[in-house]
Amino acid sequence: AGLKTLLLNVSRAVNRDVLITFSPRAGPSRLNTTEKGKAGKIHLPREIFQSLSSQTVTVVVTVLNIQQLGVFKEVNQTAQVLDNTVVGITVGESSISGLQDPVQLTFAHRQLPRDVTPQCVFWDTSKGQAGGWHSSGCFTQPGDKGTVCSCDHLTFFTLLLNPALDGSTAKALMAVATAGCGVAMAFSIFTIAFCIFIRCRFRFEETVRINLGLHVNLMGSLFLLNLAFLLNSGLSARTHPRTCRVLGGLTHYCLLCCFTWMALEGCQLYLLFIKVLGIYIHHYLAKLCLIGWGFPVLVVAVAGVIGSYGEYNIQNTDHQVIARLCWITSKHLLVHYITNCGYFGLIFLFNMAVFGVVTQKSCSLQGTGAVQGHRRPWKVAVVAAGLFCLLGATWALAFLTYGISSAPVLYLFTILNSLQGIFIFIWLIVLYYPKTKETSGSLSYITRHDKTTTASQ
């Protein structure tokens, strides 16, 4: 039950394509040209058979009902599998991939609900510990009576039904994101100006000057990222493909710069409050700038060489394109998963570990009375919240938005990251003004005393 297989012996010298039908109820069969119905179809191109060495090959088509078998289930999967049906295709005994003329699977279905988006996927055994669904190498062509999946390899395929945004929600999100970018840019400028003012107006310890320099660079990267997004959303629909690739690379570069400077903020926090840095490093801030602005160049250069950038379309439930962005193309989503999701995931884990240790030290010092005067509980709370934003914790909400599955989380992600510049600006005001001289003294205390009596700034 739940498994139906068709075996065909096909001549290698076949001069035409092979057509097969499959159905969750009837199983696979050879296609009769006069047959009509709602069965799915498999189109195997002649390229597959011409590349094989033997004269006769065996084609195996397997139709699985995963609800009955209990297999092909991804951890925390939010999307539904169409009719709980998975179709496996093998030709001969060798693995077939990189086809110029793709294999086409037509998944027959009625008109899909307005709140889902179909996606052609295959089962990737290398994803996670038990495997998972992946869309690399597959192209989705939705239709009213069926969805055509064109894939450049043979394996187990299915059609996922992802929860999608309706048109009004999608447009509202784009409006919020655009307005948020403007607000974030304004407060980024305010923060940079404030940091430069207090850095030049008051004679701080070198440690404080380095901290302010880090904040300036982080806010500068946030400003450039929001500017790149505004340019992207405004120009991507009218740009030349070559210009779009450049704009996509620029946006990716700015995003990686933000992540890198968040990581450097975490490293600086680690050196100050955990390791207690007491060694002078020549041109320390200049070396940090080389990492913060230089490392993303290498990543974007490699991604550009393999042709990762181009037009990326965002669709609503009616399959209408609501936004065209110059970004990493759908064919190179692995680049996005590695350089964005994976890279930020590592940074987030490190920064949150540092944040937890610093918070614990601050609370223990408050309890022992080592921190006095202006270090009151309310200020400790404000400083902790500011550090939380400075280390990029709000970006972690992206991991809760599987595709475009959760409109509330997307709203929260968009709003909080738009307000990140405001949070950091308020944090710096509370931290440095009007008691800038006291702040300088506290940092001097930090760098001169043993780490068991270290106080959080």
UniProtKB/TrEMBL annotation:
<dbReference type="InterPro" id="IPR000203">
    <property type="entry name" value="GPS"/>
</dbReference>
<dbReference type="InterPro" id="IPR046338">
    <property type="entry name" value="GAIN_dom_sf"/>
</dbReference>
<keyword id="KW-1015">Disulfide bond</keyword>
<dbReference type="Pfam" id="PF00002">
    <property type="entry name" value="7tm_2"/>
</dbReference>
<feature type="transmembrane region" description="Helical">
    <location>
        <begin position="410"/>
        <end position="433"/>
    </location>
</feature>
<dbReference type="GO" id="GO:0007189">
    <property type="term" value="P:adenylate cyclase-activating G protein-coupled receptor signaling pathway"/>
</dbReference>
<feature type="transmembrane region" description="Helical">
    <location>
        <begin position="172"/>
        <end position="198"/>
    </location>
</feature>
<dbReference type="GO" id="GO:0005886">
    <property type="term" value="C:plasma membrane"/>
</dbReference>
<feature type="transmembrane region" description="Helical">
    <location>
        <begin position="285"/>
        <end position="306"/>
    </location>
</feature>
<feature type="transmembrane region" description="Helical">
    <location>
        <begin position="210"/>
        <end position="230"/>
    </location>
</feature>
<keyword id="KW-0812">Transmembrane</keyword>
<keyword id="KW-1003">Cell membrane</keyword>
<keyword id="KW-0472">Membrane</keyword>
<dbReference type="InterPro" id="IPR057244">
    <property type="entry name" value="GAIN_B"/>
</dbReference>
<feature type="domain" description="GAIN-B">
    <location>
        <begin position="20"/>
        <end position="167"/>
    </location>
</feature>
<dbReference type="Pfam" id="PF01825">
    <property type="entry name" value="GPS"/>
</dbReference>
<dbReference type="InterPro" id="IPR000832">
    <property type="entry name" value="GPCR_2_secretin-like"/>
</dbReference>
<keyword id="KW-0675">Receptor</keyword>
<keyword id="KW-0297">G-protein coupled receptor</keyword>
<dbReference type="InterPro" id="IPR017981">
    <property type="entry name" value="GPCR_2-like_7TM"/>
</dbReference>
<feature type="domain" description="G-protein coupled receptors family 2 profile 2">
    <location>
        <begin position="177"/>
        <end position="432"/>
    </location>
</feature>
<feature type="transmembrane region" description="Helical">
    <location>
        <begin position="250"/>
        <end position="273"/>
    </location>
</feature>
<keyword id="KW-1133">Transmembrane helix</keyword>
<dbReference type="GO" id="GO:0004930">
    <property type="term" value="F:G protein-coupled receptor activity"/>
</dbReference>
<keyword id="KW-0325">Glycoprotein</keyword>
<protein>
    <submittedName>
        <fullName>AGRG3 protein</fullName>
    </submittedName>
</protein>
<dbReference type="GO" id="GO:0007166">
    <property type="term" value="P:cell surface receptor signaling pathway"/>
</dbReference>
<feature type="transmembrane region" description="Helical">
    <location>
        <begin position="337"/>
        <end position="359"/>
    </location>
</feature>
<feature type="transmembrane region" description="Helical">
    <location>
        <begin position="380"/>
        <end position="404"/>
    </location>
</feature>
<dbReference type="InterPro" id="IPR003910">
    <property type="entry name" value="GPR1/GPR3/GPR5"/>
</dbReference>
<keyword id="KW-0807">Transducer</keyword>
<keyword id="KW-0732">Signal</keyword>
